[in-house]
Structure prediction request, 293 residues.
Amino acid sequence: MAVRFCLFLLLFSGIKSLSGQTMPNKIIDTIELDGRSVVLLSGKKWAFLNEYQKSLAYDTLFSKNWVTKEIHSYPSDRNKPIGELVVNLNENNSNFIFPLDTFKMLRGFSSYHTGLDLKANPGDSIRAAFDGRVRFAANIGNGYGNLVIIRHYNGLETYYSHLSKILACMDDDVKAGEIVGLVGATGRATGPHLHFETRFRDRTFDPLTIVNCEQKCLTSDSLKICNQLFGIKTGNTGKHLVEGDGSDFHTIIKGDTLSKIAKLYNTSIDMLCQLNNISKTTILQVGRKLIIP
Prediction:
């Protein structure tokens, strides 16, 4: 009888479900309804207990280490060991949407390049990969140029850089597929493309670990977080961190010249030659890494 009365209250007294909303913290009462625990909350709201607990975790995710003026938000974790855990790539029922409709792969992930470079037409739409909240949306004073960072419900963050225009604002809630910017060539970019990164607590990992670019889909529904994912050896944590794509070294590709590389990193040919102990006439071999000032 009590359960039926409570059900009547939920359905007809104006108390609304908080599913998909930010939930208040004040619990008025807890009841059992058809075998599930229901919490009655302030403001004439209600929620299933497990959903309420998950929402509290999301609130922490989008408040703790929530840095909006810097790209790194976990500076104190840089040298801490990484505990193993498995994250759900479809957390909060988020679908995956590939950031670009059409593209050509220019450059992949490596020790000196922290993401994927995807060539596209200037002004092409760039879409959020998963549901989440925008943590950073501004022009950053390094190689990224115009940059959008989105934190997702599973704790991962995705970076979208070199944008010609930013179409998202800090603290915006975004859905997978929502347009957050337009393809451009701001920052250190020789032509219009998207530099796309995937990170967990500031640590970069290869986006191809979770994304199939040809099929524009996920390779799995989950991701194992561990030292191997970030290429970290025991006792050497922190050395994998790179401030941006190609900020410390440049890997020579076909067509590179000292003039092009110097222009790309806003330096001089003489400085490149001095740092790398080469001359202006040295033949640049594909795959060689040059130190960048």
Summary: Confidence is low (pLDDT under 50) at residues 7-21, 234-247. The chain has three domains: 2-61, 85-230, 249-291.
